[in-house]
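Risk mitigation, structural track. In case the binding assays with zinc ion fail to produce interpretable data, a predicted complex structure has been prepared as a fallback.
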Amino acid sequence: MKAVVYDGPMQVAVKDLPLPEGRGVLVAVDACGICGTDLTIYKGAHPRAKGPLVLGHEFVGRTTEDCAEFPKGSRVTCYPLISCGECQTCLSGQPHICEVLRLYGIDTAGGMAEMVRIPASELLAVPESVSDAVAAQAEPLAVCVHAARRAGFAAGDHVAIIGAGPIGTTLAAYLRRMGAGSVALFDTNEARIAQLRDAGFDARSTASESYEAALAAQGRAGFDRVFECAGAARAVEDALRYTRVGGSVAIVSIHKGAQPVDLQLLAFRELSVIGTRVYTRADFAEAVAMLAPMAEELAGSRARPACPKRPPPCSRR
Ligand SMILES: [Zn+2]
Ligand SMILES: [Zn+2]
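Fallback model:
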């Protein structure tokens, strides 16, 4: 079979490999996403990934053999986390942040290949109505579902997302779907901002006056929830500055090191800064269930004019 293999820093090639052996169901892959993590691995900057490694942790395919739950030919995606089941964190009921967490496509062979072998317990059924390209996005969407849950997001919340990359944009679409009072996306890339506005999102530059204008439009002093999806020091600073008293900041991006935080602001406003990593099985299942309705809604929003009229500010705050 053909597979995309990482051999070492800046060395990735399509290779012919034997079919994967061992435990699990052989899945014929139809589509596999390329994640920011894959690019980090390619650059040789991932702390765990070691070549030779078949990449790919976000994929969709069909089972090639019968297994308990899935008859041959079932359309499936994979919950890619591998937890040890024995550490304190696993035993405390949080296996998604296992102390020695591993993933398919990062620590062991993944789905950027014609075939991948995955234990049946890690497979989830994917509806036939969703395209392969959309179905391969269940994993990044699960990151967003988890971030929203960790941040304490509730319908009606006024939200800012700093960093409109794939995760920031997917999060915006998800929170809009979940009934956010408003969602403002902030980014430094003007071309990206224009593209998002065309798609019906409230996308703005990260200049201070853009945050102030977004808040003024809502008649508010700060956002209820701010999601930092940029991985930059300035984004962390802005996230704290523009969160309302008692609001929360979720750090969704993976920072390369320590960042300065204004602890006086944090204390005086009683802000909550929340860490978030990957997703639980429940988050992943919710993401799979959201694929079809979200794909439909996004297709519809492309047809709508940019900057749709906002609903009135939420009365409960
Ligand atoms: Zn990923
Ligand atoms: Zn563990």
